[in-house]
Design goal:
heterodimer; A: mainly alpha; 14 helices; B: six-stranded mixed β-sheet; three-stranded antiparallel β-sheet; about 30% helix; about 30% strand
Amino acid sequence: MMGALQGFVAAREIWEVPLAASVVAGALLGALGVYVVLRRTVFVSAALTQVSTLGLVGTLLVEERFHIETEHASEQLAVAITVSAIGALLLGAFRPKRLPAEATVGATWVVGSALVVLGVSRLVHAAHDLQGLVFGNAVAVPASDLAVIAVVSLVTIAVHTAFAKELAFTSFDPETAQALGMPVRLWDAVLFLTIGVAIPPAARALGALPVFAFLTLPAAGALMLRVGFRPAFALAASFGVLAAASGYVLSWIWEIPTGATMVAIAAALAVPGAIWRLARG
Amino acid sequence: MTAPLVALEDGAIGYGRRAFLSGLSISVGEGDFLAVVGPNGGGKTTLLRTLLGAQPLLHGRLVRPRPLRIGYVPQREHVDAIWPFTVGEVALMGRVPALGLLRSPRAADVDAVRRSLARVGIEELAGRWYGELSGGQRQRTLIARALAAEPELLALDEPTNGMDPGAELATMDLLRDLQDGTSLAIVMVSHRIEAVANYARTIAFVDQDARLFRVGGVDEMLRPDALAALYRRPVEVRVENGRRYVYAAAGEGKR
């Protein structure tokens, strides 16, 4: 154990950027998860992850077919962010009201998944690249990806701080907010845009499964502790940081899958809240 | 007669392009208490939301001579109680629309919230979680939030829905007390004529299935023939100790 830990410390140059990206993504998704959980839209994040992956696959297919050489993956990330942002607007803010939310989100997820599988089957060379882009890569997160996640996080914090009262009111009671003349759809669009933009860069650092988990488990754990609305953001972000950092380190030391370790720790962090709520009845 | 705070002139209401009631004219002035009554799904809430400007008018004219401070109380089942807000935080939301962008609540806003909680008798609950309150306490919290906006017009959608008779009376007494000595106008939607019969001054019957819209003073609307048009069966009105009691009489209905 000690030897493994020493080996981990010695390999700092390899993990410092990926670990930093994981921690920032964990904090960002943990905080955004408060809205995702309270608005009962956890499966929107799963569908958006598929949609952004579909954007990546589409970009890789175009690059292969037209022999476009890209040295960096920034083009793929830009496409994924764009597709995810559009998906977030369609699923979150401008969803057709005639269909139940579950139907729209479920259909997006399953069709997106199928198209990803079909798209990957047509990729010749880029399938290996896609593996890292979709499922995360614990040792190969470039500094540019860390920069993107940091910028997205700062913008998200700024938006959510500046418009906190509008986002909270229109999410909590859209009917009243609309009756009082507030542009509810606009605020929904702002909220879901921040979620949609956060998912693709976070997925590159953490992988698809942890993104879904980090948008759900830290917030659920924080909310079950009944700390209040504003403190829930800080607590959920802290849970996200803790799960990402400890998951990364432990997966390295024990040589087990990084994403799954992070998810398991995020789930473990939600247990005290669940026990507390059960005890309170 | 005072100028109306809000009025609908020859209006048509509905969703999308489909109007399910047309030729509607109605006005609400200072100190009015208008009850909009009809069956569930009859178009009452649509009429209320159209009056507030939250839903587009399909035809006609919505008149609002000047900007109006509005307080709105939704059906409490529509407000998700899983959100971890205290009673004070919920009530403070009533100040949000008037605050404007990038402005945080100030001492005057907190004072307005404290006064509104006191007016509905739940000042001591300010620090309690909204989700842990009883139905009646949640209703008072939502009314306090509406009052925090210091409204000239208070709009309520089925505020006594699901309440036992005692809680219903308490809520209606509260609304009457809120109007006492003020110019506050109230528009209340209810599917229960019994709830509003002794409080409203004007009543509107709304039933899109029967293509029915009729509005008038309480004495005019609580006549058996007018009520029979709404309920499509014989209805009797009894007055005891100054209170009106409305009940369905024996006989065949037309539904």
